[in-house]
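Lecture notes, part 5. Sequence design as translation. It can be helpful to think of inverse folding as translation between two languages: the language of shapes and the language of residues. The source text, in structure tokens, appears below.
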């Protein structure tokens, strides 16, 4: 019950800004592709008495919590336990051919961060897990650090966390492993990274933040599936339907930006390339020339919102795409 109360009090990031792209007067079905605690879905259902929302989430615990929160909407809300990468097959299984909108709030939910046993946060001493779906069969972060070579660990931390000291951190992780003390808990990893980078007095962001982010992305293969999700989401939209995506770090936002550009027909191949290799196709009209960011007030009230960036696009009708 405490978790449900916490979910009800939680305000989703860029809530009004993201929902402002959808037409609730005419929309019949909108997909909340990253249901989380159900904040966006709840607001959508409250804005239209005729709207149906399909909520997808790979985290069974979060899905259960959101389902309880949204039970008062009856059959206007449907929860599906699946990764958003499977949006096309999930809708097909539900007998839905096309939808009016798709919303995705990428990254972790507060529920996941605040669950110590999940190993996402260095605020708690817990096994270094980081799987969004514990039943996925994916390796945990601890298992990944035990298996990868030093250069592979460094590449993960640099590529997904944009951490300049990735090589030093990887070297220290492997050294511990060789000493028979592999990194197995959140505290061990956080302390290791802090010992490499140091911590300045009054620094707001923990030095291990980028490393934790990188491992989470690698464990859940987040960047691998994001491009395919955007492609499939565009395909399941009705003409005029809208996709809105909130990203929380530059790598995600870059993927969203580039995919929207490609799906708006803008080729990114070198000028001398005789045939387009980037698969540019005109399906979408980009609605956000620049990403929408939180107001200073929202960023101050919700630290998680500080790095959020919202981009949106509209599905073109066939005649518009010519």
């Amino acid at each position: 019950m405490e978790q449900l109360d916490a979910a009800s009090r939680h305000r989703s990031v860029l809530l009004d800004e993201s929902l402002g792209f959808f037409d609730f007067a005419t929309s019949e079905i909108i997909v909340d592709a990253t249901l989380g605690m159900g904040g966006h879905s709840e607001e959508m259902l409250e804005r239209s008495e005729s709207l149906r929302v399909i909520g997808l989430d790979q985290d069974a615990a979060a899905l259960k919590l959101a389902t309880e929160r949204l039970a008062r909407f009856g059959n206007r809300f449907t929860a599906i336990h699946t990764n958003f990468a499977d949006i096309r097959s999930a809708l097909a299984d539900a007998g839905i051919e096309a939808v009016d909108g798709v919303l995705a709030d990428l990254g972790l939910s507060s529920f996941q961060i605040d669950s110590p046993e999940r190993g996402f946060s260095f605020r708690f001493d817990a096994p270094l897990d980081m799987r969004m779906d514990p039943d996925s069969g994916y390796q945990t972060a601890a298992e990944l650090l035990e298996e990868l070579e030093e250069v592979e660990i460094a590449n993960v931390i640099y590529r997904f966390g944009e951490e300049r000291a990735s090589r030093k951190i990887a070297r220290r992780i492997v050294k511990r492993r060789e000493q028979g003390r592999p990194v197995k808990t959140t505290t061990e990893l956080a302390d290791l990274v802090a010992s490499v980078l140091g911590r300045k007095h009054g620094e707001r962001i923990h030095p291990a933040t980028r490393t934790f982010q990188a491992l989470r992305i690698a464990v859940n293969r987040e960047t691998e599936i994001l491009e395919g999700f955007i492609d499939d989401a565009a395909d399941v939209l009705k003409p005029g339907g809208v996709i809105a995506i909130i990203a929380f770090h530059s790598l995600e936002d870059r993927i969203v930006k580039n995919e929207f550009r490609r799906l708006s027909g803008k080729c990114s191949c070198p000028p001398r390339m005789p045939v387009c290799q980037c698969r540019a196709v005109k399906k979408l009209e980009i609605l956000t020339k620049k990403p929408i960011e939180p107001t200073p007030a929202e960023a101050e009230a919700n630290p998680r919102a500080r790095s959020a960036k919202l981009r949106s696009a509209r599905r073109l009708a066939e005649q518009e795409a010519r």
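The translated text above is only one of many valid answers, since several sequences can fold into similar shapes. The chain has two domains: 2-111+223-315, 139-220.
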